[in-house]
Amino acid sequence: VQLQASGGGTVQPGGSLRLTCTASGMILNSDHMAWYRQAPGRPRELVARCTNTREPGYYADFVKGRFAISRNYVENTLSLQMTSLEPEDTAVYYCAYFGSSITWGQGTLVTVSS
User: Fold this and answer.
1) How many other CB atoms are there within 10 angstroms of residue 8's CB atom?
2) Where are the alpha helices (DSSP H) in 4-96?
3) Are 110 and 93 in contact (CB under 8 A)?
4) Rounded to a whole number, what is the distance in angstroms from the first to the last CA of the chain?
5) Which residues are within 8 A (CB) of 61 and not within 5 positions of it... i.e. 6 or more apart?
6) Rounded to a whole number, what is the largest CA-CA distance in the chain?
7) Minimum mean pLDDT among 6-10, 50-54, 69-73, 107-111: which range?
8) SS3 61
9) 60 contact partners, CB below 8 Å, separation of at least 6
């Protein structure tokens, strides 16, 4: 499995960004995918997880109501729509695929600054 993340950039506080992760290889719809982030000097943390078509997604408390995760099972993409961005959301965002082992994408930088 390989993951390619895109969509990061610089945005002002209150702005929006959409991240996309494209997966290739042996992808199973039953396997979970998620977005994590890592800010400078901080550990990597879970942002949102998309389980499968039957279960709702999981969101960390600090993004509830602002971020929305979605998965396209035909195109094998995982998206993260981020709104009402805050400077505290500045981080490198990583997508992850939970198969027999965890596969990480290369990360995409999101900077929220005025």
Assistant:
1) 16
2) none
3) yes
4) 37
5) none
6) 42
7) 50-54
8) helix
9) 45, 46, 47, 48
The tokens describing 5, both together, are 């993340």
User: What burial letters (b/e) apply to 51-77, b meaning 16+ CB within 10 Å?
Assistant: beeeeeeebeeebeeebebebeeeebb
Q: Which residues 6+ apart lie within 8 Å of 101 measured at CB?
A: none
Query: CB atoms < 10 A from the CB of 38, how many?
Result: 14
Name the residue type at position 35.
W
2-47 residue pLDDT tens: 999 999 999 999 999 999 999 999 888 888 999 999 999 999 999 9
Residues in the chain: 114
89, HSE (Cβ side, Cα atoms, 13 Å): 31
Residue 76: left if φ>0, alpha if ψ -120 to 50, beta else—which one?
left
d(CA 2, CA 83): 27
